[in-house]
Write a sequence for this structure.
């Protein structure tokens, strides 16, 4: 099984990659064969993530955003079909209910990349709010059950029934100076 | 433990503003405190925390982080003071730093000049965590709040309005707002005529000498340099040479 993450720009740095690996290795219970980092910054935004469908066309694949906290053994998140999160159980769907903080597929889903690349300027303009709207409107997908809440609803208390949470807008919690239940799971900032 | 918290980022001011505030607070008080600065460069403080220019949070809005009990090593029972760095301490500030504060209460400078807002963002004192809603509400949508007061014409500079936001949250959450004695605060500008006028108002209002002549009126503890782009280091006044060290 392949673990994938994506790092580009200045918002995230090597610490964030190391931190994800630290949480996966120490808390998730996941056994994997390779840990892959997409670093090619083509678009300057999260459409860069779509490169993984071109690059990884075989085997089991499990992608995580860097702004998550993994604090317990994860349920089986590896999927045969292309699967991502549906957030509509904890937030208003807005322009898309989907969230690609966790994505999994087995084998070849490069048709997603091919479709995007075939009219990339059109899609970048049409779905300018982010790639999750592209998935919503342009792909066939399955969604996970309720596996990943937002930390915004659990800032002061660790969620009991989950083992991973997305930080969403709260990236600052990964900065030096913040200490909460989540900090115990991050690797040292120094 | 009392924590005095500040924010510095490159722009109008220089890192020595932080040093001078820190040293003058030490020089003019007997109160033990930890001095914390959230900064984008090396500054003189007991604890320096990184100011992230790539964060969604901009400029003075970083001050709001100190309302979170999870920031800056806060412990239950700590008392938190957040201060702007554009201030000159001119007298003993024990009564200011030790000002009693309760849960759900915000202490701020009493102002004697006309101001639309009751509170002054130059000084906030509160019990750690008791006003966490101010940060928690903001952190749900920093993009919106940071431009809200600019977009609605309340302020005229992008990313200003942090005081307006805190003022709104104080009302919304029924937070008790307590003002320090108004005569404790001096105000200085870069306009001579404005300063003359402010001196007259202060003198009349508190039945005392002028606010600032060669030195500062003994009733005053702090002189705040208010307004966008108002700096201390460009002033040549004697009282600044004497007290801003």
């Amino acid at each position: 099984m392949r673990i994938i993450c994506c790092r580009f720009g200045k918002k995230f740095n090597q610490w964030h990659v190391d931190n994800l690996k630290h949480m996966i290795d120490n808390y998730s219970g996941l056994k994997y064969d390779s840990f892959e980092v997409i670093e090619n910054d083509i678009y300057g935004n999260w459409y860069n993530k779509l490169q993984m469908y071109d690059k990884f066309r075989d085997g089991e694949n499990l992608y995580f955003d860097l702004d998550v906290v993994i604090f317990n053994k994860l349920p089986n998140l590896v999927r045969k079909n292309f699967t991502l999160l549906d957030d509509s159980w904890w937030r208003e769907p807005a322009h898309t209910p989907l969230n690609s903080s966790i994505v999994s597929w087995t084998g070849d889903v490069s048709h997603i990349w091919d479709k995007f690349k075939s009219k990339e300027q059109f899609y970048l303009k049409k779905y300018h709010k982010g790639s999750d709207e592209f998935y919503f409107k342009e792909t066939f997908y399955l969604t996970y059950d309720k596996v990943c809440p937002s930390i915004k609803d659990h800032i002061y208390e660790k969620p009991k029934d989950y083992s991973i949470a997305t930080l969403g807008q709260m990236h600052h919690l990964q900065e030096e100076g913040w200490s909460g239940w989540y900090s115990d799971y991050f690797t040292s900032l120094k | 433990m009392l924590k005095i918290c500040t924010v510095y980022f490159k722009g109008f001011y220089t890192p020595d503003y932080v040093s001078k505030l820190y040293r003058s607070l030490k020089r003019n008080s007997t109160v033990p405190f930890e001095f914390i600065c959230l900064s984008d460069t090396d500054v003189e403080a007991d604890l320096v925390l990184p100011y992230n220019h790539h964060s969604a949070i901009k400029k003075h809005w970083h001050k709001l982080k100190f309302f979170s009990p999870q920031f800056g090593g806060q412990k239950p029972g700590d008392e938190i003071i957040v201060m702007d760095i554009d201030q000159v301490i001119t007298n003993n500030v024990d009564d200011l730093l030790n000002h009693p504060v309760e849960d759900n209460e915000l202490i701020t400078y009493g102002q004697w000049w006309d101001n639309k807002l009751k509170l002054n963002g130059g000084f906030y004192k509160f019990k750690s965590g008791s006003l966490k809603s101010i940060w928690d509400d903001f952190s749900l949508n920093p993009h919106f709040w940071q431009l809200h007061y600019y977009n609605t014409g309340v302020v005229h500079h992008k990313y200003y309005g942090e005081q307006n936001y805190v003022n709104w949250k104080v009302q919304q959450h029924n937070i008790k707002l307590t003002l320090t004695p108004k005569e404790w605060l001096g105000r200085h500008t870069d306009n001579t005529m404005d300063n003359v006028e402010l001196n007259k108002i202060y003198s009349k209002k508190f039945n005392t000498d002028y606010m600032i002549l060669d030195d500062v009126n003994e009733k005053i503890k702090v002189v705040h340099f208010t307004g966008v782009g108002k700096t201390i280091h460009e002033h040549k006044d004697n009282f600044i040479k004497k007290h801003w060290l």
Notes: The longest helix of chain B spans residues 192-205.
